[in-house]
């Protein structure tokens, strides 16, 4: 499952650079090791387009800090659902649908 870290209120940070929009999300641990913009079946043979993690340090409300994986995910259009495949530590790709929305 794709779970954004609670330390950031379950939200990512949206940014734009060179006309491309991305969202950076810190996850709840290090069990997701790669992402792929598209379907799991395509990810297996398209390693050049896998999204690799960053190592983020998150701080919780009680002051505890933890190292987790984060990802910079390309966003074609805010508010529209897109396919995002997830590779976990078990070596299996899973299909997910993701939608990035602005905070209200």
Structure description:
The protein is mostly beta strands. It is 4% helix and 45% strand. It is built from one helix and seven strands, in the order E-E-E-H-E-E-E-E. The longest helix is centred in the middle third of the chain and has 4 residues, at 40-43. The radius of gyration is 14 Å and the shape is globular. The protein starts with 12 loop residues before the first strand and ends in a 6-residue tail after the last strand.
**What is the oligomer described by this structure?**
single chain
Helix-strand category: mainly beta
**Helix/strand order:** EEEHEEEE
What's the alpha carbon Rg, rounded to whole Å?
A: 14 Å
How many β-strand stretches?
7
> Spatial order of the strands in the main sheet?
1-2-5-4
Estimated helix fraction = under 10%
Tally the helices. 1
What is the mean predicted local confidence, pLDDT? 92
Taking the sheet with the most strands, its summary is: 4 strands, antiparallel
Q: Low-confidence stretches at least 5 residues in length (pLDDT < 50)?
A: none
Described by the principal axes of the CA atoms, the overall outline is: globular
Q: What portion of the residues fall into strands of 2 or more residues? A: over 45%
Per-chain topology:
Blueprint: E1 13-17, E2 20-26, E3 32-37, H1 40-43, E4 54-59, E5 65-74, E6 82-88, E7 93-98
Antiparallel strand pairs: 1-2, 2-5, 3-6, 4-5, 6-7
How would you summarize what this structure contains?
The protein is mainly beta and 104 residues long. It has one helix spanning 40-43; strands at 13-17, 20-26, 32-37, 54-59, 65-74, 82-88, 93-98.
